[in-house]
Amino acid sequence: MENLILFFVNKVKGVAEKAMSNNAPESKYDVFVSFRGEDIRHGFLGHLAKAFSRKLINAFVYDKFKRGDDISHSLFEAIEGSFISLIIFSKNYASSRWCLEELVKIIECKEKYGQIVIPVFYEVDPTDVRHQKKSYENALVGHEKKYILSRVQKWRQTLEKCANLSGIKSLDFRLVFSSPLIFNIF
User: Fold this and answer.
1) Is residue 173 helix, strand or coil?
2) Residue among 33, 9, 124, 129 nearest 82 (CA)
3) Which residues have a catalytic role annotated?
4) Is residue 91 part of a domain?
5) Domain presence at residue 181
6) Whole-angstrom Cα distance, residue 60 to residue 31?
7) Which domain holds residue 46?
8) Is 133 domain-assigned?
9) Torsion of CA 76, 70, 168, 137, to 10 degrees
10) Lowest CB count within 10 Å: 35, 75, 98, 127, which one?
């Protein structure tokens, strides 16, 4: 896992130095991290946040939302004010309305300001996200019972767009880094 985190951090560090378009809001963060807390909070995310800090990458990693809270205006400002959005798709990502709302805002910023978006498929396959299979299908079917259908359709379209972006599959990454030759390259 440590090599995966170093890989992310080094990629983000290089990309964060590039500017977005001139009409973008003032940047406050190098990277905004979108994630489902229950899936990664007590492992991967903690290591990633520490690595960002060591490399002096100013990251917005907020994990203090509680069930029933609304996504605040400041959260959307953090997304708008970031050079990069790192989306960590995990098994339960789509079960969170907050994550899906963040995702919509992230894609809006990509399209409007040229924000860089890096999807990370953490122990999920991109096709499960793209085609809303397995846990993604179950989550969205559940959302259809609670929310306006047009909103759920927007979430579905946004998931597909994100899954079509070039990203990183953590499962493949482990296979790559099992080779001693790869350790020498990085």
Assistant:
1) helix
2) 33
3) 102
4) yes
5) yes
6) 6
7) 2-124+166-185
8) no
9) -140
10) 127
CATH number at residue 34: 3.40.50.10140
Query: Which residues, at least 6 apart from 185, have a Cβ–Cβ distance to it below 8 Å?
Result: none
Residue type, 18: K
Q: Is 42 exposed, middle or buried (0-12, 13-18, 19+ CB in 10 A)?
A: exposed
- Counting the structural domains of the chain, the total is 1
pLDDT band for position 178 (cuts 50, 70, 90): very low
Sign of torsion over alpha carbons 72, 82, 12, 168 = positive
Q: What is the number of other CB atoms lying within 10 angstroms of the CB of residue 167? A: 17
Is residue 132 within 8 A of residue 152, CB to CB? The reply is no
For residues 86-107, average pLDDT: 96
CA 182 to chain centre: 25
Strand partners, 29: 82
In this predicted model, what pLDDT tens digit does every residue of 46-70 receive, in sequence order? Answer: 888 888 988 899 999 875 555 555 5
In angstroms, how far is CA 179 from the centroid of its own chain? 27
Q: pTM for the complete prediction?
A: 0.81
Q: Among 106, 98, 51, which Cα is nearest to 78's?
A: 106
Residue 93 lies in a domain: yes
Determine the distance from the C-alpha atom of residue 75 to the mean position of all C-alpha atoms in its chain, rounded to a whole number.
14
